[in-house]
Design a protein that fits this description.
Blueprint: E1 3-8, H1 11-19, E2 24-27, H2 40-49, E3 54-57, H3 69-85, E4 89-92, H4 103-113, E5 117-120, H5 130-139, E6 144-147, H6 158-168, E7 173-176, H7 185-192, E8 196-199
Helix pairs in contact: 3-4
Amino acid sequence: MYMREACVGSFEEAKKAQELGANRIELCDNLKEGGTTPSYGTILMAKKFLDIPIMVIIRPKGGNFIYSKAEIEIMKIDIKICKELGVMGVVFGILDEHNLINKEVTKELVDLAKPLHVTFHMAFDEIEDKKRALEELVELKVDTILTKGCKTKAFDGKETIKELIHLSKDRIIILPGGGITKENYLELMQYTNAKEVHGTKIVGRLK
């Protein structure tokens, strides 16, 4: 069975995505900024009224993926809230000033989040050596990597996505996202051997 994760920017979009056949939700706010952490109320309402699993983005600001000590503390608090509310998992990505994975902080957040499912989001696409980054994330016990395979869209990065799925050897899930729609997701999944896909239009238009 194919897993379609709908990326949504509000509770109402989450409800509609479920109605349209999404298998899982990535719950965000501010999608124009690439997604930031939704409010406590939004997460609570989604958990109460949705019947499908919910992943919550943990991102205190738009822009780059380098965070201050205060922002990291905010992320920790938000992860604890997600654990208390019983969602499936959390989605975050933290880099250093060299566009490499900030392994120290990532480990802290992964350890804090467990046993929730942890996805490292498209901050991954800023990293040049993706093979090395994949191995680091496996070692850090991240469960899923959300990636376009490049900096534009998943169909442009399909060769890289296919290679990452091959290299993952089922140790970590590679979740393609970026420009994937209800109309084209099967083509990409068949080409790359992906078992899951992600997008704002993965089950159709939500607005």
